[in-house]
Amino acid sequence: MTGRLADKVAFVTGAARGQGRAHAVRMASEGADIIAVDVAGKLPDCVPYHPASPEDLAETVRLVQATGQRMVSAIVDTRDYDGLREAVADGVAKLGRLDIIVANAGVAAPQAWDAISPEDFRDVMDINVTGTWNTVMAGAPHIIAGKRGGSIILISSAAGIKMQPFMVHYTASKHAVTGMARAFAAELGKHAIRVNSVHPGPVNTDMGTGDMVSALGQAMETNPQLSQMLTPFLPTWVAEPEDIAGTVCWLASGDSHLVTAAAIPVDQGCTQY
To answer: Which residue in 16, 181, 213 sits closest to 108, CA to CA?
Structure first.
C-alpha cells in the first residue's frame, strides 16, 4: 500500500477505542503497520466512565487489518514499564522496525479541588504522566536503533495549554505532558526524532459514558462561574476522534518534517476563550 506512512511502523497506546483507535486506523490507512496496547480493563476508582475491554481492542485489530496493514496488540497498563518494553520489543520483532510513537493513553476525572484524594491524584498522575514517560522510554530506543529518524506524538489536552476547571490532577498531568514533549524534543533531535504534543478540546469518545456527565455537573455546581472557560470559537463544540487523528497522522508523516517541540491545539479555539 502507498501512503504518507508507507513501510513505517507506529506504536499506539490506549488503542482499544476512541482517539487511540482512530489514530491507529488512520495511520494504517496511510500505510503504517501498528503496534498497539491498551489496559482493556479496570480503571482507577475516581474515573467515572466505562473502561475499554479486550473485545474493543480486538475490534481495533480488525479495523486496522481491514486496511490491509498488520497489527500486533497486547493488553498492557502503561504504568507497567517492563510490560510496555516487552510489548514494543515483540512488535518490533514481528514488524521489523519502529518509526512513530503515539502516547495516547490517559484518564480524566471531574472532581472539585477539595474532593480529590491523595490516591485520586496519584492515579491520574501515574497514568497520564508516568505512563506517557514509560511509553516514550519503551519505544524511543527502537527508533534510534533504526537510524532513520522518527516522530513521537504525545496526546495532551486543551487542559495542557490553558486549564480544565474541576480537574486539578488532570490539568497538572497534561501540563506535564506538554513540558515532557519539549524536553524529549531537545534531547532526541540529534537522532532526527521529532517530538510534539497535541491538545484536543472536547472529543466524542467513551470518556463521556457512565457517570462522566453527572460527575462533571456536580463539580461545576461548586463554582458555576468557571463552567464556560473552555467555550469554543467554532460552531462545533465537540470533535470526532478522526478529527484529532488527522493532525496526529500529519505529525507522523514527512509533511511535518520541520515541526518539533510544538504544542498543537486541535480545540476549536477553546483555549483562547
So the answer is: 213
Contact criterion met (CB below 8 Å) for 230 and 164: yes
Catalytic (active site) residue 81? no
Catalytically annotated residue among 49, 81, 170, 273: 170
pTM beyond 0.90 = yes
The residues, ordered by sequence, that sit 6+ positions from 258 with a Cβ below 8 Å of its Cβ are none
Q: What is the pLDDT of residues 137-169, one digit of tens each?
A: 999 999 999 999 999 999 999 999 999 999 999
Compute the distance between CA of residue 251 and CA of residue 141 in angstroms, rounded to an integer: 19
Report whether 268 contacts 235 (CB < 8 A): no
Say which residues have a Cβ less than 8 Å from residue 93's Cβ, sequence separation at least 6. Answer: none
Q: What confidence tens digit (pLDDT) does each residue in 95-130 have?
A: 999 999 999 999 999 999 999 999 999 999 999 999
**Rounded Cα distance, 209 and 216, in Å:** 12
